[in-house]
Amino acid sequence: MGRYIAKRFGQAAIVLLLVSLFTYLLLYMMPGDPVYAMLGGDITREQYDIAYAKMHLGDPLLLRYVRWLFDFVTGEWGNSFKYSEPVRQIIAVRLPVTMYLGVWSIIISTLAGILFGVICGTKRGKAADSVIITCANFGAVMPAFWLAVLGMYIFSLKLGWLPTHGFTMPSEDLGLSIQQSILPLIALSVGGIGGTTRQMRSGMLDVVRQDYIRTARSKGLKESQVIWRHAFRNAVLPVVTLTGMSFRNVVAGAVSIEQVFGIAGMGSLLINSILSKDIAVVQSCIMIISIVVVMSNLLVDILYGILDARIRVE
Amino acid sequence: MDKETKTKIHLFFRRLFKRKLVMLAAILVLFFILTAIFAPLLTPYEPNKQDLTAILQKPSASHWLGTDEAGRDVLTRIFYGARTSLIIGVVSVLISAVAGVTLGLVSAYYGGLLNTVISRFIDVLMSLPSLMLALALGLVFGHSIGSLMIILGISTIPTYTRMMSAQVLSVKNQDYITAERVAGARNSRILISHILPNCFSPILVLLTSNIGMTILAESSLSFLGMGINPPTASWGAMVSAGCSKLLLNPVYGIAPGICVCLLVYGFNVLGDGLRDVLDPRLRGSL
């Protein structure tokens, strides 16, 4: 087990190192001058010269990269020319918002997906199965941004039940926070619910055919015991992997959903800084999002190793 | 075409369409392909011609789905949007298949350092959110239709590479490959004429379902204003523009999204159906 964890840690570290290299090179691969990319177009000649010296553009690329990486690791993320603020402060405000919505969305989609999947798997071919799996297949392909727009039209504009814009953390105003979170969470979770339902259903269908399930039934266990104690445990394993991967999809969903609902999170920060070519913010966003995603994958892989003895032995 | 091939093809389609759902998906996809091809014949309107006397009208007899903020017919732009989605979907999937298959073949066949380098590259692609990667690459490549195809293609490369590696590893040491090598065949010949044809079915399955995923990704990018440049019609961009006009013409923001769902659903189910017919070992759940 120790070797397995060490190996996965090593892989994650290599991935993050490569991501940091790509992120750093982004500045130089972009068309245009790196100094203008860093500080924006409207700077004076003196400011340009100072920045040129400060960015050590005369030094070799590798040296500059190592220096940048060191700065990043020590929390020195530069300044945003658009917000005229240190990048670290901007991200410190926005990361919790996206994490809050993201974690809730993953919890909702995993639990709902598992429940629907078990229902489908145990009632194969019946009406409930067909209805749920058709909905899940559509849910898995619905663009999150479109769901957000649709939800906003129906529940905010037509029925007037929910607010159209904004987000408040629950620590500030719980009631308002719940109202404002409902639509974004639905839009963010439907795709995940669809994917998890599909995975859980096929997992259940595979497992219930196995001999040990027949054994469990033939020794006279109640059907609920057979399903929850014996079938469920094995069928749920692949879902664990899917949950780890779902951080990736949450980020993708968050970018467009935060745009629709005007939520100041990492997604809208990323897209706005890309639109305004605020490269210091773009770089930090990519690094932070990658670290969160890679770390969550790592955590899930380790968890998987603990749950599934076969992986440990490999 | 000889008789035997004809029977084979006939059998293939009969097995594919035995499931009603797969049939439905094929019809759905064909429907969008036809509207994309015959868009100019289906509508009296020009997709990009503005008519400032008919801005944001609700659906009516002359404009079945109403008009947008520049007075353009929404239904017409949905037809032309199908063109954008399908062309981008198909071309970027082909780009990604060529790149991914080559990387997979080479890395698994030669192994060693090359394999390590390619595997790490694939790890990076797989662990990053593809939308974030596409947005970042947009900064480098710009937003022309060609660069959009490359950007979208890059994110599905890992699916092909993983699959090809597994395939190559499973046949690499079989007797007929060794026999070829003993007979003096070059590596490139072994790869192209012996290993690649074995992988035709799984590649076809991946191609089909990846088209759907790519269309979905394209619509997200266009929605964010980082996709194809206006005024070219794109479903994602239409939802984005219609989003702020929901009270005037709700259909404008909502209908293009329904098209994305239907087309992507069609490709996914078709991909699942193909997989069930071509590769019974991977039988999934429809």
Automatic annotation (TrEMBL), chain A:
Lineage: superkingdom: Bacteria
Location within or outside the cell: Cell membrane
GO terms of molecular function: dipeptide transmembrane transporter activity
Organism per entry: Murimonas intestini
Name this polypeptide is given: Peptide/nickel transport system permease protein
Coiled coil: none
Primary localisation category: membrane
Keywords associated with the record: Cell membrane, Membrane, Transmembrane, Transmembrane helix, Transport
Gene Ontology, cellular component aspect: plasma membrane
Family affiliation: Belongs to the binding-protein-dependent transport system permease family.
From TrEMBL, chain B:
One of the protein's GO biological processes: transmembrane transport
Primary site of residence: membrane
UniProt keyword annotations, A-Z: Cell membrane, Membrane, Transmembrane, Transmembrane helix, Transport
TM segment ranges: 21-42, 86-110, 131-154, 203-225, 246-267
UniProt-listed Gene3D superfamilies: MetI-like (1.10.3720.10)
GO cellular component: plasma membrane
UniProt-listed Pfam families: BPD_transp_1, OppC_N
Top-level taxon: Bacteria
Domain ABC transmembrane type-1: 82-271
Topology with respect to the bilayer: Multi-pass membrane protein
UniProt-listed SUPFAM superfamilies: MetI-like (SSF161098)
Keyword Ubl conjugation carried by entry: no
Location in the cell: Cell membrane
Family: Belongs to the binding-protein-dependent transport system permease family.
Name the UniProt record assigns to this protein: Peptide/nickel transport system permease protein
Species of the source: Murimonas intestini
Lineage: Bacteria, Bacillati, Bacillota, Clostridia, Lachnospirales
